Amino acid sequence: MTVTPVHPAEATTGPEIELRSRITVELVDHAASDIGVVRAARVSTAGERAHREERGDDYIGGLIRYLMRSRHGSPFEHNYMTFLVNAPIFTIRHMMRHRTWSFNEESARYKDLESVFYVPDSDRLLKQEGKPGHYQYVPGTEEDHELVTTSASTAYRAAFREYQRMLDAGIARELARTVLPVATYSTVYATCNARSLMHFLSLRTNRADATYVSHPQREVEIVAEQMESEFARLMPLTHAAYESYGRVSP
Fold first, then answer.
1. Is 60 helix (H, G, I), strand (E, B) or coil?
2. Band (18; pLDDT cuts 50, 70, 90)
3. FRET pair for 58, CA 20 to 30 Å: which of 4, 33, 48, 87?
4. 35: how many CB neighbours lie within 10 A of its CB?
5. Average pLDDT in the 207-236 region?
6. Which structural domain range is residue 155 located in?
7. What is the CATH number for 109?
8. Residue 184: DSSP 8-state
9. Is 239 exposed, middle or buried (0-12, 13-18, 19+ CB in 10 A)?
């Protein structure tokens, strides 16, 4: 766990808060394999035999490459991967934009939220140069990182103080939570199939060799990179074909 200490100048009277930069993704369940893609593809021509026949890696890899190249996408849908994601709320909202997931998120209507908030680590590029659609991020100075940390901790502490004050007064959680920032950490179960995941990866990773180069926000890219690592481990031939054909979802 990466924890950034609050700057001494901000150590004023108020609730204790934790500033965290680490974003984690854990694979908690799955039914995903390369042979599953092949069986789904072959059932249209081989019928029930497709469920019984086993083929070697050369055949499996060749068929998967054909499916990827020809953009026959449905065989890649007969599997699932479930991830447990711990990230700031704004990052989880980026995931939800894709509408390709099944989600269950911890609810601030039913439980008290912990005082854990996101701050970027020292490697995060802080400054934006250029106009929207044609900009790039550049590093900040040590003073810039200190400004982000101290400003954020001031705002987070004030927000959590008011959140706790309302809870202590008996205000409903669903109303008290309205003062908390989107940098508050949340936990979500997220499930998708390989086709949906490849679509997500194509938009939320920055790869110069991709057919369509994307420029995602770094925090959601961290989520995507961890998911891709598990995907490549579970379905290596599918992942290799995805890479070979420009990282475009079939």
1. helix
2. very high
3. 48
4. 14
5. 97
6. 3-32+83-192
7. 3.30.1360.170
8. B
9. buried
- Inter-residue contact 199 to 177 (CB < 8 Å): no
Question: pLDDT at residue 94 above 80?
Answer: yes
pTM over 0.85: yes
Question: Exactly one of 39, 157, 204, 247 is catalytic; which is it?
Answer: 204
Given a cut of 80, is residue 55 above it in pLDDT? no
Q: Is 204 a catalytic residue?
A: yes
State the average pLDDT over residues 202-231. Answer: 97
- Residue stretches of the annotated binding site: 74, 97-99, 105-109, 177, 193-195, 199, 204
In the chain, how many domains are there? 1
Per-residue confidence band for 196, with pLDDT thresholds at 50, 70 and 90 = very high
Annotated binding site for dUMP: 105-109, 177, 204
Q: 141 lies in a domain?
A: yes
Tokens of 212: 């369509």
